[in-house]
């Protein structure tokens, strides 16, 4: 803004001075042009008189050389570009001109100027005057005037710029700097501008000082309010933090309580279900134990009958053992008979051999008898082996039957013990069944109470959640408010009051 004002002042003064300078230059140019024109005309008149006086005698005497010399000398001056001389009859007598003539605009021609002697025209001449020297002088004077005016204009503008900077811009810059520093968020509000100049700038400085006084008073009040406000906001923030922590802790405890209640309810339901299943299983077990008692009783009867059959089988095996021993005795008799028969057949064969041809038939019969005796002896040995094996197996079967009889008797005793245990189990199962029924009833009641408590806890949990949300919202608002208040305090502390 200050640069714009300085530029505007300098531009206005420059325009004004340029206008004045242009007017002065225009007036000076007009004056100089008129003066130069008057001087040019006077020079022309003097040159015409000089030409007339110079040509009077040579024209009268028709001295061509003299005329040519005069013409050349006159043309060599800066004022004359061309000179043509004729006699009174128009006959050319001399002609001279410069090689580099002036521009047509700077040439001034005088034709048929008469040369008079004693009242008679003795000749004429045409002369071309050049105003180029006059124009050059005028241009030099104008250029000098322009340089002087520009120098004066620059000096005046520089002087004006210094005065404007010292008288106007310096106080305005001081005001602007203070206001800019305040606008940027800081500033020394104890600084005051001088008001002793007595001009409009002093009046502006006085008004600025009054405004700064008012701003300083407002900022002091705002600082006091923000300090008090900061204490209240911190207290509110602390309260909201405590409330938020308490509600969060309460929510955690309620959540844990709800979880525990749900687990308790689930456990109660599981206990009720397990109790029902246990009751069913105990009933099934009772029935199974009853059936087991019946089966044990039936097994005892079967085992007793089996024991009797085993004893009978053992007796029969004993008889079989005795019979096999008798068979052995018979085999011993048969073996002795076979040996005796074999011996007799051998003797008969010997006797038949002694008899010769008469005893051949008898020898054949003796061989057959001996063969049968040998086969009988071999079969007897095989039967003996079989009987021996039968006796061995009979002994083993007899021992096994005696062992089975012993185990069967122990099994009968164990069956009696099992029957007693099953009867005791039936009694305990009946007691357990009654207790399971009571546990199932209590578990159902506990599950109902737990469900009701869980509903109350869920309601309290929902309310606590709303309270926690409100506490968080209030804490967020207080935090944001505290940040804004801190920012305001920071900005206020930038001002020195």
Termini Cα gap:
27 Å
| CATH fold-level topology of the largest domain | Helix Hairpins
CATH architecture of the largest domain: Orthogonal Bundle
Q: Estimate percent helicity.
A: over 70%
Number of strands: 6
Uncertain runs are none
**Structural class, please?**
alpha+beta
Main beta-sheet strand count, sense and barrel state: 4 strands, antiparallel
CATH superfamily annotation of the largest domain: Methyl-accepting chemotaxis protein
- The SSE order reads HHEEEEHEHHE
Keywords:
497 residues, alpha+beta, Beta-Lactamase, Helix Hairpins, 4-stranded antiparallel sheet, 8% strand, elongated
Explain the overall architecture.
It contains five helices and six strands, in the order H-H-E-E-E-E-H-E-H-H-E. The chain has 497 residues and is of the alpha+beta class. It has two domains: 2-98 and 105-152, Beta-Lactamase (2-Layer Sandwich), CATH 3.30.450; 248-486, Orthogonal Bundle (Helix Hairpins). It has a four-stranded antiparallel β-sheet. Helix 1 packs antiparallel against helix 2, helix 1 (2-61) packs antiparallel against helix 3 and helix 4 (200-355) packs antiparallel against helix 5 (360-493). The radius of gyration is 82 Å and the shape is elongated. Residues 225-461 form the Methyl-accepting transducer domain.
Summarize the structure.
The protein has helices at 2-61, 64-75, 132-183, 200-355, 360-493; strands spanning 80-87, 92-97, 107-117, 120-130, 187-188, 495-496. The chain is an alpha+beta fold.
């Amino acid at each position: 803004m200050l640069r714009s004002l300085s530029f505007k002042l300098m531009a206005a003064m420059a325009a004004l001075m340029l206008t004045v300078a242009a007017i002065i230059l225009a007036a000076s140019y007009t004056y100089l042009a008129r003066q130069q024109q008057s001087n040019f005309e006077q020079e022309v008149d003097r040159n015409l008189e000089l030409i007339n006086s110079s040509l009077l005698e040579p024209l009268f005497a028709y001295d061509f050389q003299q005329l040519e010399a005069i013409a050349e000398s006159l043309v060599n001056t800066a004022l004359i570009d061309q000179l043509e001389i004729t006699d009174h009859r128009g006959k050319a007598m001399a002609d001279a001109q410069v090689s580099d003539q002036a521009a047509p605009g700077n040439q001034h021609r005088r034709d048929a100027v008469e040369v008079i002697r004693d009242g008679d025209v003795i000749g004429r001449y045409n002369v071309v005057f050049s105003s180029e020297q006059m124009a050059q002088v005028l241009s030099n004077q104008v250029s000098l005037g322009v340089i002087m005016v520009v120098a004066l204009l620059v000096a005046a503008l520089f002087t004006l710029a210094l005065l404007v900077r010292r008288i106007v811009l310096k106080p305005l810059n001081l005001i602007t700097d203070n206001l800019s520093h305040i606008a940027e968020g800081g500033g020394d509000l104890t600084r005051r501008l001088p008001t002793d100049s007595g001009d409009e700038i002093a009046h502006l400085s006085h008004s600025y000082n009054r405004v700064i006084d008012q701003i300083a008073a407002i900022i002091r009040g705002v600082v006091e309010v923000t300090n008090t406000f900061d204490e209240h906001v911190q207290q509110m923030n602390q309260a909201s933090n405590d409330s938020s922590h308490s509600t969060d802790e309460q929510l955690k405890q309620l959540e844990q309580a709800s979880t525990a209640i749900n687990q308790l309810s689930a456990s109660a339901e599981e206990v009720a279900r397990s109790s029902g299943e246990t009751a069913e299983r105990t009933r099934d077990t009772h029935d199974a134990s009853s059936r087991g008692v019946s089966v044990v009783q039936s097994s005892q009867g079967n085992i007793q009958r089996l024991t009797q059959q085993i004893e009978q089988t053992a007796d029969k095996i004993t008889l079989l053992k005795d019979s096999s021993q008798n068979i052995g005795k018979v085999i011993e008799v048969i073996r002795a008979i076979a040996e005796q028969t074999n011996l007799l057949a051998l003797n008969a064969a010997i006797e038949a051999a002694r008899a010769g041809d008469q005893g051949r038939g008898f020898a054949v019969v003796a061989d057959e008898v001996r063969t049968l005796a040998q086969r009988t002896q071999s079969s007897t040995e095989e039967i003996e082996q079989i009987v021996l094996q039968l006796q061995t197996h009979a002994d083993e079967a007899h021992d096994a039957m005696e062992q089975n009889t012993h185990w069967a008797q122990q099994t009968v005793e164990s069956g009696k013990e099992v029957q007693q245990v099953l009867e005791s189990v039936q009694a305990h199962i009946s007691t357990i069944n009654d207790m399971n029924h009571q546990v199932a009833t209590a578990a159902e009641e506990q599950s109902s109470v737990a469900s009701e408590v869980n509903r109350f806890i869920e309601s309290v949990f929902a309310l606590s959640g709303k309270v926690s949300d409100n506490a968080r919202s209030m804490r967020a608002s207080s935090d944001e408010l505290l940040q804004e208040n801190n920012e305001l305090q920071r900005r206020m502390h930038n001002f020195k009051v």
